[in-house]
Write a structure and sequence with these properties.
binds 5'-O-[(S)-butoxy(hydroxy)phosphoryl]adenosine, seven-stranded mixed β-sheet, eight-stranded mixed β-sheet, AMP binding, 21 helices
């Protein structure tokens, strides 16, 4: 099968869709020719406390980068995600919770119950003195309380910063300090794949380096034994006892911050990506409805963690704004076995399923017996996100999971974009395995020549992916560092938002994302800066220098390959490699666990001392036949040693 094979939407899909092919063309044209008209209308899907009179006020013109949408409007996100559904669907399930342990009971939380829980949580936060605009860090497992916590912040205008529960105490501390959180929300422990995750203990360790934290609110989840520290730590259930379940939503300006989410870049420490209220909610809800072609009453499941933007936009905010039923899963794809996803689909009659290529490839590798034993007849649409999906994995998803009956969509977007950017709309766009296809409404992708930055006008193009104008879900700044925001996304290619991804556009105008062109890795759909892993390594007393690159990995997409030069007094050994691997896990978290550590007496450098990563990448890829010109190296012999001792044979 050619990777370019087209899968046209079936008559049935077209008959029921929100957007057919003709409507897509018309609306897309309007969205870019008349953004004020288009988005002004779309924003009516949201309840505004005070209607906006201005729609778009944005500039990508260097150096005056400024992004505002619906700037004089006022709204509350939770009034939209909860309160406005109470009359019509108060008894409908908002969140289905499927615990890690398949024998434990699932929970069904109605919109009415969600309202109560969020109000109570919000009142507890108020009781702790949390104010509008204050940053609250949330470090929680994948349990409904994580969503309550996010929504409780939004209800009172506090800005949440959710930190993925897999991050280490050090990584957590950095994020808590960067946004000056005074309050941290966590749980005793999480559960994943039958093992417990010591969240509270991690918080305790992190807070040794966070002098600004005054209160830690702890949800009892596993009931595991945890130490509670005197006046600092408070059990959620104790704080909530007797607190009333009514809390009026605070009116927020459309441009007031809603949340911060830390993400890795090519340099330095993770950036606090800041999203605001009005544009984000309009965008998250519209993209959720149209891209999943969501219909009332359907059960929708996104397998991401709320610690990532996918969880923010497409587990919590988008689906709840649309009155959907959203499933939260605490566990992992291969526990108790590689059929867990499919068991959960059958158990909860899931209609729409959204996951990452790395999970698809892992389950594909586990054998078809697990997927074959499931019924899966409720499924209608399958989505993919996080990294390029290879056509083999796409076809397996389509055949084995979708039984050749479901629509498969590959959605390209980023933490920074808030929502889908390039993605098929199921009833409008024929798909090609491996392509994210066409832009969403209002999104104007351009392919640039990487060196000159020139826009490639021809339809067929290959280069770097940039966006020519703003969309409502766009991040507004890097928290506390607007200069870094401008430099990261707008400086290199003036007049455009630069995505950091490479791409190809084919003769049909379809986009094929080829992966990062900067020093950002994508490991199992998790974004990681090579610089972060390098600084973790050099923080080890035995390490003198480190360089980290990615290499193609069958399941993870990319693996982590580390070149390490030891202090002169140290000797390389397998034990030391293990020690360094564990060190990185401790410094950042298990997601950053190196696949290969190669000890190298020297790294390939130019005469001016710049590490030539191109060479390191080639050796890591086991493609050293194509090293290219090494004559500019200070010491060309270094390369022979690297090749002789390479790990990825
Ligand atoms: C990077 C963003 C926002 C979703 C979760 C990841 C890569 C994401 C795709 C896709 C090819 C993709 C890109 C992007 N990526 N989706 N469908 N096809 N690549 O969010 O952590 O901000 O990472 O993930 O490289 O730049 P993120």
């Amino acid at each position: 099968m050619s990777p370019e094979a087209l899968f046209a939407p079936s008559d049935d899909v077209v008959a029921k869709t929100h957007v057919n092919a003709t409507q897509y063309e018309e609306k897309y044209a309007r969205s870019v020719n008349d953004p004020d008209g288009f988005w002004g209308e779309q924003a009516k899907r949201i309840d505004w406390i005070k209607p906006f009179t201005k729609v778009k006020n944005t500039s990508f013109k260097w150096p005056d980068i400024s992004i505002k949408w619906f700037e004089d409007g006022e709204l509350n996100v939770t009034a939209n995600c909860i309160d406005r559904h109470l009359d019509t669907r108060g008894d409908q399930v908002a969140i289905i919770f499927e615990p890690d342990d398949p024998k434990a009971e699932a929970r069904h939380i109605t919109y009415r119950k969600l309202h109560e829980e969020v109000c109570r949580f919000a009142n507890v936060l108020k009781g702790l003195g949390v104010k509008k605009g204050e940053r609250v860090t949330i470090y929680m497992p994948m349990i409904p309380e994580a969503a309550y916590a996010m929504l409780a912040c939004a209800r009172i205008g506090a800005v949440h910063s959710v930190v993925f529960g897999g991050f280490s105490p050090d990584a957590l501390a950095g994020r808590v300090n960067d946004c000056d959180s005074r309050v941290v929300l966590t749980a005793d422990e999480g559960r994943r794949g039958g093992k417990s995750v010591p969240l509270k203990a991690n918080v305790d360790k992190a807070l040794e380096d966070c002098p600004g934290v005054e209160k830690v609110l702890v949800v009892r989840n596993t009931g595991g034994d945890v130490a509670m520290k005197g006046s600092r730590d408070v059990w959620w259930h104790e704080a909530a006892a007797g607190v009333e379940a009514v809390c009026e939503p605070v009116a927020m300006n459309a441009e007031d911050p809603l949340f911060i989410l830390y993400t890795s870049g090519s340099t330095g420490k993770p950036k606090g990506v800041l999203h605001t209220t009005g544009g984000y909610l309009v965008y998250a809800s519209l993209t959720h409805e149209l891209t999943f072609d969501y219909r009332d009453g359907e059960v929708y499941w996104c397998t991401a963690d709320v610690g990532w933007v996918t969880g923010h936009s497409y587990i919590v905010y988008g689906p709840l704004a649309n009155g959907a039923t959203t499933l939260m899963f605490e566990g992992v794809p291969n526990y108790p076995d590689a059929g867990r996803f499919w068991d959960v689909v059958d158990k909860h009659k899931v209609n729409i399923f959204y996951t990452a290529p790395t999970a698809i490839r892992a389950l594909m590798g586990a054998g078809n017996q697990f997927v074959e034993r499931a019924d899966l007849s409720t499924l209608r649409l399958l989505g993919s996100v996080g990294e390029p999906i290879n056509p083999e994995a796409w076809m397996w998803y389509h055949k084995q999971v979708g039984r050749e009956r479901c629509v498969v969509i590959d959605t390209w977007w980023q933490t920074e974009t808030g929502g889908f950017m390039i993605t098929p709309l199921p009833g409008a766009i024929a798909t090609k395995p491996g392509s994210a296809t066409k832009p969403f409404f209002g999104v104007q992708p351009v392919v640039l020549e990487p060196e000159s930055g020139k826009v490639i006008a021809e339809t067929e193009a290959s280069g770097v992916l940039a966006i020519a104008d703003s969309w409502p879900g766009q991040m507004r700044t890097v928290y506390g560092d607007h200069q870094r925001f401008k430099e990261t996304y707008f400086q290199q290619y003036k007049g455009f938002y630069f995505s950091g991804d490479g791409c190809r556009r084919d003769a049909d105008g379809y986009y094929w994302i080829t992966g990062r062109v900067d020093d950002v890795l994508n490991v199992s759909g998790h974004r990681l800066g090579t610089a972060e892993v390098e600084s973790a390594l050099v923080a080890h007393p035995k390490v003198s220098e480190a360089a980290v690159v990615g290499f193609p990995h069958d399941v993870k997409g990319q693996g982590i390959y580390c070149y390490v030069t030891l202090m002169a007094s140290e000797t390389a050994s397998d034990d030391l490699a293990v020690e360094l691997r564990n060190w990185v896990r401790k410094e950042i978290g298990p997601i950053a666990s190196p696949d290969h550590i190669q000890f190298a007496p020297g790294l390939p450098k130019t005469r001016s001392g710049k590490i030539m990563r191109r060479i390191l990448r080639k050796v890591a890829e086991n493609d050293y036949g194509a090293l290219g010109d090494t004559s500019t190296l200070a010491d060309p012999a270094v390369v022979d040693d690297l090749i002789a001792n390479r790990k990825n044979r």
